[in-house]
Every structure is written in structure tokens, then in C-alpha cells.
Amino acid sequence: MRPLTDHLPKPLVEVRGRPLIAHHIEKLAAMGVRRIVINVSYLADALVTAVKSMDNFGCDIVFSVENIALESGGGIATASPHFLGAATVVVSADIYSEFDYQKLLPAIHSIENGHCDAHFVMVPPTPGQPGGEFALDTAERGWMLPLLHNGVPRLTLANIGVLGTKFCQALPRGQRFRLLPHYQDLVDRERATGQLCDAPWWNVTTPDDVKALNLLAVVTKE
């Protein structure tokens, strides 16, 4: 994301008139979330100061500070002592989507009732980009949402989902590791469900992505 992130943490990059993280805070609050835990590492002080100055929409904001970036797995594991409920919504700050987070409520209830340990929103693979981790069943199984599996067609993790808090708290803390192998284990054991994203979604990883999104916003308004 350089040069945009030379002096600015990625969650503060402005997209469609607001920092990326502000969009997520608003959407989480709209679905009823009242406690948000934010992992901070690169330019942590700047991110903490900026978030504290934003409208938190009635949410309690907690910061989990990483002295070194711990990747997806280490970050969630280290933050997990702050998770209070049985299920935790997990969203990456470097995406932008119009997906309604309230559509995660059935997955939250499923995890709370012990039917599965994780739920992931999936998107079609982007040509030329990494992805294509799992496939999705075509039908629900009674009380349970569609399972993820290793067949075809392959879909890509949208970096929006719900994890069981016990699963998160069992992961090693203070270590740098990726979550994907742990997700694969859940899929192999039929403990992970999913749903297809039914709204526009973007992985915001380059300055060109930011320009394209902001241009789209201007065109849409016109």
C-alpha cells in the first residue's frame, strides 16, 4: 500500500470518504456488536489516537497491541483474552465491502449452540490473485449452514467471518503464524460453514485499489 502507508497505518487509509476501519466499526455496531477488539502493530499510536477520535457508535473499543506483527493467527490468538462471548466476528481492516454483517447472526447462533466452530464469507476468486481456498455446499443441512469442503468450484475467503472463542483461545499466543492451516483442519472435520458474499467486495491492497474505489464512489454519486 506504499506510499499511502509510509506514515499511515493501513486501516486509516481513506476510502469513500472515511478510513477503512470506520466503515467496519459502523457496520459492526449496526449488527448489534458493542465490544470491538482492534489489533494494532505498525504505527500503533497513530491508529489508537485516530480511532479514539472517531464515532464509535456506542461500542467499547479495546486495543490489542502487538510489539511485532503476528500475522492473522498470532494476532487473533493474542487478542482472544478480550473476547467475551462464545462467538467472535472477525474482519480484516484492509477490505471494503457492502456486505451486511447482520447476515452473520445465524452463524453466530450456530457456533453458540455448538454446531460448528467457524463460519466464513466467501467470494469468487480474483483472476491473477491468490485465493481459492475452499468450496461451499449447495444446500443447508437442517439447522446448519452450508459446510465448506475441498471440492470445486473453489472460492476465496473474504476475510469476514465468525470464529468460536474457544477455538481462538486454544491457539498459541505471542507467536507469529497463519490461520489458514487451522481453518483447513476445521474444514476437514466438517466444523466450518460458509456463505457466498451477496454484495460488492474489494481487497484493498494497493494505491490503485484505493483510487478505483474512490473513483467508483464519485461516479456512483454522479
Description:
There is one protein chain. The mean pLDDT is about 90. The chain has helices at about 20-30, 45-55, 70-80, 105-110, 165-170, 180-190, 205-220; strands spanning about 15, 20, 35-40, 60-65, 85-90, 95, 120-125, 135, 150, 155-165, 190-195, 200-205. The protein has one domain (about 10-215): Spore Coat Polysaccharide Biosynthesis Protein SpsA, Chain A. Strands 5-10-7-11 form a four-stranded mixed sheet. A two-stranded antiparallel sheet has the order 1-2. A two-stranded parallel sheet has the order 3-4. The longest helix is centred in the C-terminal third of the chain and has 15 residues, at about 205-220. The protein contains seven helices and twelve strands. About 30% of the residues lie in helices and about 25% in strands. The protein is an alpha+beta fold.
- Strand pairing plus helix content: what structural class? alpha+beta
Q: Any idea what the radius of gyration is?
A: 17 Å
Task: Give the name of the CATH architecture.
Answer: Alpha-Beta Complex
Numbering strands along the chain, what is their spatial order in the largest sheet? 5-10-7-11
Helix content: 25-40%
The sequence of SSEs as H and E is EEHEHEHEEHEEEEHHEEH
Kindly report the name of the CATH homologous superfamily.
Spore Coat Polysaccharide Biosynthesis Protein SpsA, Chain A
Give me the count of strands. Answer: 12
Give a concise summary.
With 222 residues, this protein is an alpha+beta fold.
